[in-house]
Amino acid sequence: MKNYLNIISLNNISIYLLLSFPAFLVVGPLLAEISMNLINIFFLYKLFNEKNFKFLKEKFFFIFIAFYIYIFLNIFLSNYINDILIKHIFYFRHIIFVFAVADLLLRNKNLILFFYKILTVTILIISIDGIIQFLFGNNILGFPKLRPDRLSGFFEDKMVLGSYIARLFPLLIGLFIYNL
């Protein structure tokens, strides 16, 4: 019984981490990486605790592993192996993250709707902040526009506002269509 309650609390923590993921991406890569790795660790703990390894038999798992091996082979054939090997060794965490999120979505039917709402609010706040910075030269927090042709918004000096919106907007559209 205690083990079951432990898994339920880990699921709840994973849900909160997943729901706060869009905001963590705005704050910086550290919180997003910590969130993703914690979700992965909780998923693997739950997997080993329940001895449920169904995801290893999924065809997507084999496709992801084949792609990971392909990336790894390209690294070894590259002229820059010393520079990029360490960065790419732990890419398998993204494979685990996909299956951890899929597991969370299967266990919680309302999670997609909550994630859609939080992603909508996050993109809306980011967009309004970008518009304010475009019009007035400073954003809501007072960060100045560093270049006349680029906006940074909450990202301060990184100038990735457009990239953030462009990468998450298709997900927002897909979730909108799904929730119809």
Short overview:
The chain is mainly α. Helices cover 76% and strands 0% of the residues.
Summarize the structure in words.
- This protein has helices spanning 2-19, 21-27, 29-50, 59-77, 81-89, 92-107, 111-136, 161-179.
- With 180 residues, the protein is an all-alpha fold.
- Helix 2 (21-27) packs antiparallel against helix 3 and helix 4 runs antiparallel to helix 5.
- The longest helix has 26 residues, at 111-136.
- The radius of gyration is 19 Å and the shape is globular.
How do the strands and helices of this protein lay out in sequence?
Blueprint lengths: L1 H18 L1 H7 L1 H22 L8 H19 L3 H9 L2 H16 L3 H26 L24 H19 L1
Helix pairs in contact: 1-3, 2-3, 3-6, 4-5, 7-8
What is the share of helical residues?
over 70%
Number of helices: 8
Order of helices and strands: HHHHHHHH
The amount of beta strand, in percent, is: under 5%
Taking the sheet with the most strands, its summary is:
none
Secondary structural class: mainly alpha
Question: Could you tell me the number of beta strands?
Answer: 0
The coarse silhouette is globular
Distance between the termini: 38 Å
Low-confidence stretches: none
- What Rg is obtained from the alpha carbons, in whole angstroms? 19 Å
Average the pLDDT over all residues and give the rounded result: 84
